[in-house]
Specification:
Strand content: 25-35%
Number of helices: 7
Order of helices and strands: EHHEEHEEEHHHHEEEEEEE
Number of domains: 1
CATH topology: Glutamine Phosphoribosylpyrophosphate, subunit 1, domain 1
Structural class: alpha+beta
CATH class: Alpha Beta
Largest sheet: 7 strands, antiparallel
Number of strands: 13
CATH architecture: 4-Layer Sandwich
Radius of gyration: 16 Å
CATH superfamily: Aminohydrolase, N-terminal nucleophile (Ntn) domain
Length: 249
């Protein structure tokens, strides 16, 4: 499985957000506390961040090595800062290959996307059925072999058809449930807002006057963390978060 952190708020360095906390994403990559499946997340690491002064699209760093062995990330995490970040420590679902095309977060235009979980039966025909739901443009843009990238394409396809970000991720969860089932915790952000689902694994949210964070598990002892109920949809902007049942989306 995977662990992810989505952040919106005052500018922070990647080191402050992902390395320094006592139970940081780096720590979770080898010692997660809430993970439903798997014991480590050592099959890659990725982080995306935004700099609106330069462009609307995010920058993305992805590597197939575990984050604790990623010397490039260690070299720049203390000097790269952003108001919006989505980072993922990957635990690949066998037999998915460990390669950069399968490393999250995925990006398209202004969007960053993460998936924690797996689609049941993906290698036994479900992948083809999910791909048939896509427009030719979205289907042809899939580069790798992971279920997560197909789910991102489904979310983009839903937004192409007029869905809101929260409606898009909720529709992806419903589609997977209709086809085969699985664990489908998702996070989708454009740097201004975030939409996330809890469907099969742990999810927590924190929001105070300035920040909103959605994460697979808390990374510190801040009392504002709250557990997101199973079957919920999370929507947020910096300083505000809403949680409601997914069927109400």
């Amino acid at each position: 499985m995977c662990r992810f952190v989505a952040y919106l708020g005052p500018v922070v360095t990647l080191e402050e957000l992902l390395v320094a906390p006592p139970h940081s994403l780096v720590h979770q990559s080898w010692a997660p506390e809430r993970q439903v499946s798997g014991v480590v997340n050592a099959d890659g690491f990725g982080v995306g961040w935004y700099d609106r002064r330069r462009r609307p699209e995010p920058a993305v760093h992805r590597a197939t090595k575990p984050v604790w062995a990623d010397r490039s990330f260690a070299s720049f995490s203390g000097v790269v800062a952003s108001h919006a970040v989505l980072a993922v420590a990957r635990g690949a679902t066998a037999p998915a290959p460990v390669e950069e095309s399968g490393t999250q977060p995925f990006s398209s235009g202004p969007w960053l996307f993460a998936h924690n979980g797996s689609v049941d039966g993906f290698r036994e025909g479900v992948a083809s059925r999910l791909r048939r739901r896509l427009s030719p443009e979205r289907e042809s843009a899939i580069l790798g072999a992971s279920d997560s990238e197909v789910l991102f394409a489904l979310a983009l396809h839903a937004m192409d058809s007029g869905a809101s970000p929260e409606g898009a991720v909720a529709s992806v969860v419903a589609t997977v449930a209709e086809e085969s089932g699985g664990r489908v915790n998702l996070a989708l952000t454009d740097g201004d807002r975030v939409a996330a689902t809890r469907a099969g694994d742990s999810l927590f949210a924190l929001s105070d006057e300035q920040r909103t964070i959605v994460a697979s598990e808390p990374f510190d002892e801040d009392p504002h963390w709250c557990e997101v109920p199973e079957g919920s949809l999370v929507t947020g902007t910096a300083g505000h978060v809403g949680i409601r049942p997914m069927e109400a989306a």
